[in-house]
Amino acid sequence: MRLGLYLNLYGTPDERPRLADAVEQAQLAEQAGFDWVVLGERHLHRPGYHEILTSLTWLAAHTSRIGIATAGIVAPLYDPVVLAETLAHIDVLSGGRLTAGFVLGYRPEEFALYGVTQRERVARFEEGLEILTRLWTSDEVTYEGKFTSIQDAFLSPRPVQDPRPKLWNGGRVSAMLERTARMCDGWTTSFNELDSDLPAKIAEYRSYPRGEGTLGAEVIVCREGFCAPTSHDARAALEEPLRDLYDAYTGWKRTSADASRYTQGWDDIVNRSVIGSPAECADRIAHYEAMGADGLILRIQPPGMPQSEALKAIESFGELLS
Asked: Where is the Luciferase-like domain (predicted)?
């Protein structure tokens, strides 16, 4: 089972613009045998949140082997040509380690900030990914779309990876699963997707026809993760900062269908996570592998958790990988 480490990008006034903690975690994850470090995206966030593309570049510069991935970039917010060029260059700078994961986005404030109409998000997503993919794989692109028109365009340099970096897409509804199968190479689940729902959704995703030029049908399950000597130790380290994060999510996700899942009890959280002793975490990893997952992305450090606790958990997961 491949493991990814979802890095905390919350900024605080005393650390901006440093990403020292994230770099330290990424370097430890690389040594421990993780396959990816993974970044998310947020805007209009009062506590502070480091910008995703420059942070990706910074992490690439401070690591040498581990994959660098996003889960995900809010694709409808971006000019697709700028996004294609920036991500291609990150792949070049990292020596071919990029996986580009996208989401539709759901916060009205973020769409308003970028001057994008939210009801156009699906059309913008599909047009943007088509342009990005063609620019990554073609010598020259002419495209007349609803939102973007380009004539005789090309990227130089193109991505290092041949034929291109893999594309992931995240979400939970059937239309998203079909779109992912048609346009991308892997599906990233929500962190709070119920285990009971996953087998049917994995089967549905893999039942849709693959689009021309896609590179597979990976399933990447996103989960809270914390490995400690005992389950009691794991709960003692994780529960309070995770509860604080979930309390914040109830406000951020007020327009999202999954908002209620952030008010569930500890047992509900554990039952959809990889939390506990090494033996318990190993069992949970095997559980997701048997379910059909190709990889797990673990969110180990909610905001407010000391760096020392996060590093110990990363080391503990690394021992499971060795």
From this structure: 16-294
